[in-house]
Amino acid sequence: MRRIWNLLSKSKQLALFSRPASKFRLTALRSYCDEPYRQNRPGPLVQYKSLVDQGKLQHDPYQESVASELESLLARLEQYEKDMEEYHVNLANWEKQRENERRRLLMEEVELHQKDEDWWKRLNNKLTERWESRKRPGNMEPGVGKWVSYLKREKKLDSLVGRRPTAPPAPKGLYIYGNVGSGKTMLMDMFYSATKGIVKHRRRYHFHEAMLRINEHMHKIWKSQIDEKPLQSTVAGWIMSLPFDMKAKEWLAAEERYKHEIQLNNILLAVADKFFLDGEENEKGASILCFDEIQTVDVFAIVALSGILSRLLSSGTIIVATSNRAPNDLNEAGMQKEIFQKLLSKLENHCEKVLIGSEIDYRRFIAQKSENLVHFFWPIEKEAINEFEKKWHDVTSRLGGRIVSNTISVMFGRTLEVPESFDGVARFTFEYLCGRPLGAADYIAVAENFHTVFISDIPVMSMRIRDKARRFITLIDELYNHHCSLCCLASSSIDELFQGTEEGTLFDLESFQFETETDGGKLRRNVLAEGRVSSTGAPSSITSILSGQEELFAFHRAVSRLIEMQTPLYLDGVSNFHPYFQRQHKQLQQL
C-alpha cells in the first residue's frame, strides 16, 4: 500500500511543479491523445474538432483535412488487422510445411550421397582441409556450387509447397509535410494514440531514435555473424538425432549454416524483420510505423531507410510519416540517386502525400494565448540566476529527494554520468551535455530516465560553437519527443538564442559550403565501404553533409519547441506521457 501511495504522490508532486494556479487552464498539448491508457480512444478528427470547440486549438483547414485523412485510415485498420491475422496464420503454416519439406530433401540428398563412395572421399578431404585451416563450413564446397545447390533446392520447394503467401493489400499510409509548428507531429500523435487496441504492432520513432535502433540491430546481427564457434556446437538438434554418420551430419550442418548466411546476406532486410519484435514474436497482426521528422541527411540514412522502409512496406506495414520536406525534396544533395529513387517510389506507392500549407507556427500561437509558466530564465545575471536556483530548490524540496550523482545506461553498452539527480529529476550545465562528444543516444537516455531536466549556462549560439549548437538542437528534439519538463538558464531569450553574436551568425552559407566541399566528398565515398558509425548513430561527418535549408529547419524547430515547452498545454502532459510515469503506471497495474 505504501508503494502505491509513493507512486501516486510523486505524480501529484510533479503536477504541482508543472501546473501552478492559472486562470487559463488547459490540458496538455499532447492530451489531444486523450488519456494515455484509456481504451477506445476517439479518432484524430474527433479529437481535433473537440479541441477546436473547446478553444484549445485554432481551427486550420489544412489540419482538419489531414485529421480527416487520418480518420479515414483509422477506419480501415480494424478489418486490415483481421486480414493480417489470417495472413500470418497461413504464413506460419506455409513456413512450417516448407521447412519440413526442405529437411526431407536434405535427407534424400544425404542418402544418395552415402551410396557414392567417391563423393564421401571428396567430402572427407574438404572436411580435413577445413579443420586444418579453421575455415567456416561455408567454405567446405566451392561458393558457386553451394549457391547452385541452394537455388535448385529452393526451386524444388516452390513446386512442392508453393511460393510465399501474398500479404493482403494494405491501406495507404500518409506522408505529412509542411512548415515548422504547423501541427504535423500533433496530428500524427493523435492518430498513433487512436490505434491502441486496434493494431497489435505499433511503433513511433523520431528520426534520431530510429537510426540508432537500426544501428543497434545491425551491430547485433554483425556480431552474431562474426562469432566463431566450433562446428559441433552449431549442429542443430534435429541433425544430431538423424541415423547418419558424423560426416553426413557435418555436411547437413554446413548446408544449414549456408542457408542462414544467405538469409542474412542483406543485413537491412534482417533488421527490418526485427523492427517490430519486442517481446511480441508470438502476436500476429498488422503493423504501423509512425515516423517523425523523416530526413535523408547522409548516405547511410538513404541506404538504411531505403532498405528497411521498402521491406516494411512490402510486407504490409502502414507508415505515417512527417517531414519538413516533400518526398521529392528529401535528397537535394543528390546522394545515392538510384537507391533514393527506389525509396521514393515505395513511398509514393504506399503513402498519400498531404501538405499542411499553413504558414502559422501554432506553437507560438498557443504560447501567446496561454499564461506561460516561467521555465526559461535569462540573461545569466543575478536575478535570473536566483530564480533558476529557486526553481531547482522548489522542485527538490517538493519531491523530497536526496540529490546524488548517478550513472545511466546508453545504447551500445555505454554509460553516462549524471552529476546531480533524484527521483526522475536531473541537472546539467550546457557545456557538460553539449560541449563534449555526446549525441542522440546519450540524449535519449537522459530523456527516458528524467521527466524534469535543468540546464544552466546556455550561451547564444554562433559559428564558433556550431557543433555545440547542433548537439543542443538534438538534445531539445529528444527532450521534446519524450515529453520532458525543461528548465533553462540562458544568455538570451529563446528567439535570440540562435541569432549569432559579434563573432558571426550561427548560419553562414559561405562557410557551410566550404565545409561541405572539403569534408562531404570523403563521407560520400567511404561511408558505405567503411561502415563507420559514431556513437550518435550517424556517420561521423554527418554535420558536413546537411543542406543549408535543413539546418535552418532545425534551428526554427528548436526555437518553436522551446516556446511550446514553456506552456501549460505542454507541461500538463508530462505526468501522463513521459516514460518515467508510464513505467509507474505499469507498476500500479501489476500490483
Automatic annotation (TrEMBL):
Coiled-coil ranges per UniProt: 63-116
Molecular function GO terms recorded: ATP binding; ATP hydrolysis activity
Gene Ontology CC entries for this record: mitochondrion
Keywords recorded for this protein, A-Z: ATP-binding, Coiled coil, Nucleotide-binding
Source organism superkingdom: Eukaryota
InterPro entries named in the record: ATPase_AFG1-like, P-loop_NTPase
SUPFAM superfamilies: P-loop containing nucleoside triphosphate hydrolases
Sequence similarity: Belongs to the AFG1 ATPase family.
Family annotation (NCBIfam families): ZapE
Name of the featured protein: AAA+ ATPase domain-containing protein
